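Help! Submission page says 'invalid entity' but I think these are all valid:
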Amino acid sequence: MLGLMFFDAHLSRRIDAPGARERREIVKVLALTDLCLVTEARYTRHPSMADLHTPFQEHPLSLEHFPSGSFIAVPPQLPGKSGL
Amino acid sequence: MIHLDNIRKVFNAGKPNEFVAIDAVHLTIDAQRATALKGPSGSGKTTLLSILGCMARPTSGRITLKNREMSSLPERFLTEIRRETFGVIFQQFNLIKGLTPLENVMIPAYPKGENFASLKKRAMELLDMLNLADKAQAKVEWLSGGEAQRTAIARALINNPTIIIADEPTAHLDSRLSLEFMEIMRRLKEEGKTILIASHDPLVYESNVIDRIVEMRDGKLVVHGDGR
Amino acid sequence: MRAIAKQRYILDLVLSSMARRKGKNIALVLVYTFVLFLLASVLFSVESLKREAKLILQDAPEMTVQRLTAGRQDLIPTDFIASISTIRGVQSVEGRLWGYYYDALSGANFTLMVNTALNDKMGEIVIGTGVARRSNTDSGLRTLGKNDIIPFKTADSSVLPLTVKGFLPSTSELVTADLILVSESDFRRIFAIGKDLVTDLVLKVKNGKELGTIAGKITQIHPDTRPIVREDILRTYEAIFDWRGGVTMMVLSGVLFAFVILAWDKATGLSAEEKREIGILKAVGWETSDILLMKFWEGAAISLSAFFLGILLAYCHIFLASSILFAPILKGWSVLYPHFRLTPYINGYQIATLFFLTVIPYTVVTIVPSWRSATIDPDSVMRM
């Protein structure tokens, strides 16, 4: 049964391959940087573009108030990058 | 066949409820004979039976089975020998509920990993011999007292033991079934098995199937005037 | 052969034993399956998303340069383009214009982006399929079609109506669902951004290995900039749904912990009936190791059936039913979200992890408490 699962996964990947290529192409053509997963807030829509302060945009003590922010982790490159 | 040398069994040694079950027991059990252990409750017959059947170790003393020293054997070997040599019939029958008599009879042989077909055949033959063939697939809860008794006997025989041990086998049976039981013991004796029965039921120890009576009282063997 | 036959006998006995306690065992399997379903669902969806991101963002801009003012992202002056182009190794520098537009009527956030192909087609927009689904026209909320108009509120309080002239492919929803492509002059009108400013810059470099050096040089010339390289983007998505951190991990650990407690509780409670059975088996010649083997099979039977059931259900949940149960959590307060079928990326590692996290602890937890009873002395059975 597990075998069936793996087989289905493999098949789905095959079927989806042209779609994946198209997505990749569009990323290139439109110069996109992020997946459109969560459109709640800036740093959830474009997590790779977000800076450390975006979540605190309201004021310094503003705690996380968007639900999805609780599980979208801080991009690893942020702390310690020069100039920040 | 079985030789007990100065056997003593103490329970809860060193604690306030220390209790000497049997003491200074010298006994030789002859092969292919039926021996009855007679005595009131509390006399230590169950303990003696347990030691004879290698189900408990004596606190002191030696026990030899077919000239082989048993008292110092490690647990694993003891279990194996016990499984091959003894077939035990318990006072409460102790069948596993929810299973069929057939399954109950086969269970003692499971750990040996024997071929299913031959095991099943042997089990069916035993049940047949005890007139239980038509009940083989019923549930044990539905068996009558006598049928449960016979299932317990069949189970005791599955590994082809040389010695049969029964603890108060007639305690839950009426006279007719008790006599029936003794008849089955007679047949087994004729097949060459050694029988050991602990009982305070005269129907048992006065039966002519019994070759020898060993009497116990207060944990010690009762020696009669004529040296028995 | 004997060993195998022995296992089969024991398994047989275990199954008939368990059948007698149907209620308890079915409940156990259900709870167990549910736990595995949750764990596997999270694992599967997260892994697949990660892979998808890695795959399609491979051609994201090599370097993006942002400007920061007081630590916040700010618009970049176009003269930065000239100064950065002079850096050795830089092939091209272009300004990007993009931002967020909040559509009050539908409550959705759109990403508005300038596309040079539309620059001579003022008044026209190309929209993503998510936008089409979630937009508003004068006649209310409905799916937008060609030539429909979206009225944009501009920064200077007027309304700029733009006409939908095309749609982005629906297969690209994962990256374009909320996207609206617009001409430069329309964009600048809507947000009142002067011609001398852009949102950020995208760079092409001659040699990928030089990215670090070039980034360094950029920050030297312009200390208020922040370069982001493609590596950063990919790493963000590597970490973003990493189940090994964050609230997700806390929740999962909680579930797992509760599960282990449940299992322990169930296993330690050997009923009198079970103890009696073990005693009988010992008395008829089963060794302690045989009893433990039996307990092992009991644990394994429940574990394995729940394991396979849970995983299968999780697979169907995530890949066939598009994570229905998780969707509300993922979407949060988003009004607009992409419709896409997640492509399955499952591998042995995930299955193995799940196996070690659940089946092994459960089986252990079933055996350990039985140790005591398994070592029961046959003599005591005589007296039962």
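Support: the input was valid. A stray whitespace character was the problem, and the output above is from the cleaned input. The CA atoms of residues 11 and 43 of chain A lie 34 Å apart.
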